[in-house]
Amino acid sequence: MSNSDDDSLRPATKLVQGGRRPEWTGDPRLGGGVVNPPVWRASTILYDNIADLEARGHATHDKLYYGRRGTPTVWALADALTQMEPGAEGTLLYPSGVAANSAGLLALLSPGDHLLMVDSAYEPTRAFCDGMLARMGVRTTYYDPLIGADITGLIEPATKLIFLESPGSLTFEVQDIPAITAVARERGVLTMLDNTWATPLLFPALAHGVDVTMMSLTKYIGGHSDAMMGSLTATRAVWPRLRSAAYQLGQAVSPDDCALMLRGLRTLDVRMARHGDNGLTIANWLAGRPEVGRVLHPARPGDRGHAIWSRDFGGASGLFGFTLKSADEAARTRFLDALEHFGIGFSWGGYESLVVPSNPQTIRTVVAWTDPDPLVRLSIGLEDPADLIADLTRGFAAL
Ligand SMILES: *Cc1c(COP(=O)(O)O)cnc(C)c1O
Predict the structure, then answer these.
(1) pLDDT at residue 232, rounded to an integer
(2) Would you call 122 a catalytic residue per the annotation?
(3) Residue range 217-275, pLDDT digits in tens
(4) Other beta carbons within 10 Å of 138
(5) Which CATH architecture fits 11-266?
(6) Nearest CA to ligand 1 atom 15
(7) Measured in angstroms, how far is the CA atom of residue 101 from the centroid of ligand 1?
(8) Is residue 317 within 6 Å of ligand 1 at its C-beta?
């Protein structure tokens, strides 16, 4: 595992080269090597002799030891993700994004600790705080995603962690991450960000002061809607705590899934650019439609998050929302059911467009979601946007 100190390469090049170390793609006895790290499936690792077994038990985790500690396929993905994140010491992989979030919270919080959690967080993240963390004696206070530096007023002596998600994946508020991480550093509090929407390509989190950055790789990294995984990437100071917790929790991922994630990662730069362009084209078109109330897309001037988004982000992904003006839930259902090119389904970030109804008013506890118009979330894929616009026009006709 190498940290990301070599920042001489640009992100698109790192995506192509990351994890393809000679020792993971070739064998000196055979000569040469292959382009992609092969899939090493393993539980048992065989040792030459007992001295070898004893030596490797003490080795760092990029030596073959036992399947749960990973194989070169797993290390290659972790290494490639670390390379993408300037300031990172290492990356740990988990069976899903939810598992990564839960593992990070468990690693950094103890009974009696206090957590500040953004009110716009992904719903299962909240469920973990209100469920298992509460049972363990960790208190959670939810905060307004737009709080910025005023978060200082919510920090208590017991506060150990501030959790951020930006933009919120249902309601798309953009948080002032540099302001919050500056306060956190001053007050000795760690920060953890769910960076699934942007990925380090559009928002290098650690460079903005975050200590631990999480991604659901299921979304844009995999990019093809056929594998689940999550990651935590951390600074040198926090990394040992995460690694120790991961070993204790026994979180292991499949090398086959890592190979799929690596395949997705190689094209992330071109896919993201197209997701972003297509998404913005459709968001702008929606904003001109009489059936639409609000478009929630931070790359649009006038969006409440646009100023901070323009300052901090290198682009937009393809996930955003909009409301149906003066419609009721039945009309929203007619609209959704009339769409032919948008799959109705959870998750996002795949090459194919998806749509879901969303109801943030049932989730929020600090800042109520008061917009009476029903909300729709779109994940814009790689189709020609003209076909998607024709499809949405069909949906509006069914309203
Ligand atoms: C999907 C998602 C997750 C969870 O990821 P899974 O891989 O589905 O477990 C976490 N955060 C956000 C913002 C997500 O959209």
Answers:
(1) 98
(2) yes
(3) 999 999 999 999 999 999 999 999 999 999 999 999 999 999 999 999 999 999 999 99
(4) 22
(5) 3-Layer(aba) Sandwich (3.40)
(6) 169
(7) 9
(8) no
Cα–Cα distance for residue pair 281/219, rounded to 1 Å: 21
In terms of Cα–Cα distance, which of 55, 38, 107 is closest to 263? 38
Given ligand 1 and candidates 203, 216, 231, 254, which is best to mutate, with the most ligand atoms within 8 Å of its CB?
216
Question: Topology of domain 268-398, per CATH?
Answer: Aspartate Aminotransferase, domain 1 (3.90.1150)
Angle 329-338/385-398 helices, nearest 10 degrees?
Answer: 140
Marked catalytic residue, from 68, 187, 325, 334? 68
Q: Which residue has the higher pLDDT, 367 or 62?
A: 367
- Quick: pLDDT tens for 74-98: 999 999 999 999 999 999 999 999 9
Please state, in angstroms and rounded to a whole number, the distance separating the CA atoms of residues 85 and 73: 19
pTM summary value = 0.96
Atom of ligand 1 nearest to the CA of 197: 13
pLDDT on residue 103: 98
Domains in the chain: boundaries: 11-266, 268-398
